[in-house]
Amino acid sequence: MTEQLEHFRLCSSCKTPLAFESTYYVCSVSTCNRKRTGLTFCSVACYDAHLPGMRHRSSWAEEERAPSRDAFLREQQAEQAKQERAQPDRSGAQPLATSDDELPREVLIVVSKLKKYIKARSGMNTSEDTMEALSDIVRAACDQAVREAGRDDRRTVKARDFAGLDKFPRDFG
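The structure assignment produced for this chain is given below.
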């Protein structure tokens, strides 16, 4: 962003530039003022022009104040940095936590359901340290599945990413 910005946004209706620190209007309906939609209007007349196409039941123009140029640039840089952190690299997903110490360490297993399953399967009881050991196994499996999804350039972990875990028996019968 080396060029000098002259305006905050454009009017969604007439495309007039909206100056920094000026008054502009937004629609009161949430679907019109979401981040991705972000409809902004230079005047109430331009706001009124968008109503026939939107068919709102009840709406009004809300007056807003545009940020200063410096505040707008800081906001843009923060958003860009956030997006860069969220982008995966080619070798796998970009970790959000920079070290293992930053990862959550709580138990990942529903204790009551596991105890109920083991009791129904074998009649045995389950000790508390079982939950932590099993959570560590689940974490390791998830880490491997994340790497697998990253190798396929996906940002969604799917069941097939756990396919390497078929060394565990599925049937005890």
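Interim note for the steering committee: The longest strand covers residues 23-27. The chain has a mean pLDDT of 82.
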